[in-house]
Amino acid sequence: MNVIVDGIVYSLQKHGGISVYFNELIKNICFFSDIDLNLILYPNNSHALKEIDLFNVSCTKYRSRFLERYRNVSFSNMQNNKKSIFHSSYYRIGCARNLLNVTTVHDFIYEKYFRGYKKSIHAWQKRHAVLHSDYIICVSENTRNDLLNFYPEVDPSKIQVIYNGVGEHFHLLKDDSKKKQKNDYVIYIGSRYGYKNFETAVTSVSLDECLQLYIIGGGELNAFEVDLLNKKLPQRYKFLGFTNDSALNELYNNAFCLLYPSLYEGFGIPALEAMKAGCPVIAMDSSSIPEVCGNAAILVKENSPEAFSLALNKLKKGNFRKDLIEKALLHAENFSWNKMANETISLYKRLLEVE
Fold it and tell me: Which long-range contacts (CB under 8 A, 24 or more apart) does 345-351 make?
């Protein structure tokens, strides 16, 4: 079986959820001796790509052209005697008669929360890819429902939900020297764009004088965020920036909880990472979060600092926090990148058999 993975995303982000997704897919494909994998790459400065071993991966490298990310991928030199799968990492279509296009749709954040030129271009590109794909993978039922809402002309039978996984880097620490006795900080991770509800997170932590806020990833703090933090949490916050998985696992293990107040997620990988590392999760009861977290997290229905503050206080009562951690550890076992990859490869094979 021939599989072509379009690695354009590695040129678009240094690290991020989509890069992690394709890293895990590529690593797992390499375990299948009956799959000939070719990875398309463009000049990049990707941290994510450095995390995988490409020694046994056939890579085709191209020079990027103006607006390369928006172009279809042509294969004029490709033989037409054997069907192949083309799976783009960022909404591109492979153009050759023997290619079957698979597109993974992660979310509809741009369509729901962005405005202007940036939204229009992204929405056009995604729509073009979806409508010209032979099959579509959605990372959650919520994303599938959004897709059918935005593109009602898509045949539902061409869509399969395949859940994301959670990395093996995330686990309970066995080394007592890395465990702290006092879990006095709350983690906020990722983007701080409007729908992520960062201001709500800051305010809710400020209502508890015993807690600090650790801010991970999401780029440098802007002036508004620094001002907000200094007013609401003076001397009670740390900005840690980009953190590798090993360090992040240790932070999860020693945190009071992960505060995940985002109004919309296509999946919500950080919630699963925290669960697997024994870190309780408090999240918004919206979008894909209930689907991913099940009953193993505190899901807040009201979008207010007071509601999240009540959830933080709930974790301090009796054995509630301990019981929630045990429940979350079991729940996280339902998700793995190996499972995601196996289901994706089965889809490839099914498509080729039909053809």
Answer: 345/28, 345/29, 345/32, 345/35, 347/102, 347/135, 347/137, 347/160, 347/162, 348/1, 348/3, 348/85, 348/87, 348/102, 349/1, 351/85, 351/100, 351/102, 351/134, 351/135
Rounded CA separation 72/135 (Å)? 17
CATH number for the segment(s) 2-165+336-354: 3.40.50.2000
Average confidence (pLDDT) per 10 residues, the chain, 355 residues: 95 90 95 92 91 88 86 72 91 93 97 89 95 98 98 97 95 78 89 96 97 95 98 97 92 97 96 97 97 97 98 96 97 96 97 79
Count the alpha carbons within 13 Å of 200 in the hemisphere toward its beta carbon.
25
Contact, 139 vs 309, CB < 8 A? no
Tell me if 2-165+336-354 shares its fold with 176-332. yes
Tokens of 248: 């992040």
Backbone angles phi, psi at 349, to 5 degrees: -65, -40
| pTM (2 d.p.) | 0.93
End-to-end C-alpha distance for the chain, whole angstroms = 13
Superfamily of domain 176-332: Glycogen Phosphorylase B; (3.40.50.2000)
